[in-house]
Design brief:
The chain has one domain: Glycolipid transfer protein, GLTP, CATH 1.10.3520.10. The longest helix has 28 residues. The protein has nine helices and no strands. α2 runs antiparallel to α3. It starts with 9 loop residues before the first helix and ends in a 7-residue tail after the last helix. Helices cover 63% and strands 0% of the residues. The protein binds ligand 1PZ.
Length: 214
């Protein structure tokens, strides 16, 4: 077993998302990225067929981490402060990618859309029948969300990768939170927090008309 693998549990990942929303209902960037990093580690456990997906997620996590390590790091403490700072300083390409192809706003939006998929996927997993197929839950939720933003070639590759997913019970056990029943209970506890993070970000982006950033 790889070092640390025995202690890896999806519980800590989901706990990171529970720490995202501040008392002022702002979304904190650091726990958000910590949550995504954990999801990437989990995805890597599922096999190399998913590496094209985890690589893209890592690239996006690193872009935002770089802002968090820059001179302007305090502007990137929350999604609210990031949006305010980048818009006020004309750091976002609104029509097409040109001078600021990797703005925090457009990069975060990609993770935000993926969080919507994650929310639906985990909910599908939580409420699914014992013998249901993870691959079906995954492709149905993907087609209903993220797929709308992806070109044909990526949708195709994603569809192929989904076929490699194990059955629901094995998948729940891979989460390392105990039995399948315990994993389901943990999902029930954690999902409302993920929904809340998604909802706050969605409202913020809608308010600033940023939901279609190129
Ligand atoms: C458990 C099974 C995992 C299924 C994951 C389902 C999501 C499939 C996503 C396929 C993404 C493929 C790679 C590249 C996509 C990029 O083009 C887009 C848009 O970015 P742009 O080109 O505009 O810069 N990237 C994304 O949409 C972000 C995708 C992040 C996906 C992270 C999934 C993490 C899964 C955790 C599983 C527990």
């Amino acid at each position: 077993m790889a070092a640390g693998a025995e202690t890896f549990s999806l519980r800590e990942v989901l706990v990171a998302f529970t720490a995202c929303v501040s008392e002022q209902r702002e979304v904190r960037v650091d726990p958000y990225l910590a949550g995504w990093k954990g999801l990437v580690r989990f995805l890597n456990c599922l096999g190399t067929i998913f590496s094209f997906i985890s690589k893209d997620a890592v690239t996006k996590i690193e872009i935002i981490e770089n802002y968090r390590n820059s001179d302007q790091q305090e502007k990137y403490l929350t999604v609210q402060s990031m949006v305010e700072y980048e818009l006020a300083n004309d750091l976002v390409d609104l029509q097409k990618r040109s001078k600021h192809p990797d703005s925090g706003c457009r990069t975060f939006l990609r993770l935000h859309r993926a969080l919507h998929w994650l929310q639906m996927f985990l909910e599908g997993l939580r409420t699914g029948e014992d013998n249901s197929k993870t691959s079906v839950i995954c492709s149905e939720t993907y087609n209903a969300s993220l797929a709308n933003y992806h070109p044909w070639i990526i949708r195709k590759a994603a569809g192929v990768a989904f076929c490699a997913l194990p059955t629901r019970n094995t998948f729940l056990e891979t989460m390392n939170v105990g039995t399948a029943e315990e994993a389901v209970a943990m999902l029930g506890e954690a999902l409302p927090y993920i929904c809340e993070v998604y909802k706050i970000t969605e409202e913020l982006y809608a308010q600033h008309k940023l939901l279609d950033l190129p």
